[in-house]
Amino acid sequence: MIRESPIEPTRELSALIQAQAAEIATLKARIAELERQLGLNSSNSSKPPSSDGLKKPARVSSLRESSGKKPGGQPGHGGETLRQVAEPDKVINHRPEVCRGCGAALTPDAAGDYAARQVFDLPEPQPLVVTEHRAFSCRCEACGATTRAAFPEDVKAPAQYGARIAAFVVYLLHYQLLPEDRLVELMADLYRVKLAAGTIAAMSRNCAGRLKKLGSHR
């Protein structure tokens, strides 16, 4: 009687196990992706609120302990009253064109005293301000050597973003916890800046590096 070699069943079993393991990994990845898609809504992604449908996103409870007080201004608290400033940034003059008594035309020269009301608002979003640094070369009349001026230490590339926009991006990303895709949209909408994910990551790394240096000097 010829006995079957135990080697072949072992190889077949090993191949079957590997195939099943690969299939399980694929299914796990698919399940994770589906769960991620089902969990996305307007509160944790760039999806508009209309895409949430009838299902409302779960409210995130505050981590602060309750003070027992009602929300809003508390009794006895004076609050902050918006007051007029002595030097407004912009003045728009309004003058009547006709007399309300007889209907005669009124000229600007007829204007006397005025009443003033001030509106506090955000400035209109503007494109980024581009500052060009020019490093000139000068030739010495005494020896003939040519010397080029040095660029500022933080100006390292032919074209780069400045410190203010980097600080603003890092603040929104890490302190306000704005998702990266929504941060990209915000910068494009307000300042017409098309930031790439790699640029945002570089700004974060540079900021972390500066903070690390400051911490080591203390």
Number of helices: 4
Mean pLDDT level: 81
Spatial shape: extended
Roughly how many Å is the radius of gyration? 33 Å
Tell me about the biggest sheet? 2 strands, antiparallel
Which regions have little confidence, pLDDT < 50, spanning 5+ residues?
4-8
Kindly, what is the distance between the CA atoms of the first and last residues, rounded to a whole number of angstroms? Answer: 85 Å
Hey, roughly how much beta strand do the residues contain?
under 5%
Describe the structure.
- The protein is an all-alpha fold and about 220 residues long.
- It has helices at about 5-40, 165-175, 180-190, 195-215, and strands spanning about 135-140, 145-150.
- Strands 1-2 form a two-stranded antiparallel ribbon.
- Helix 2 crosses helix 4 (about 195-215).
- The relative contact order is 0.06.
Keywords, separated by commas or semicolons:
single chain, 2 strands
Summarize the structure.
Helix content is 36%, strand content 3%. By secondary structure, the chain is mainly α.
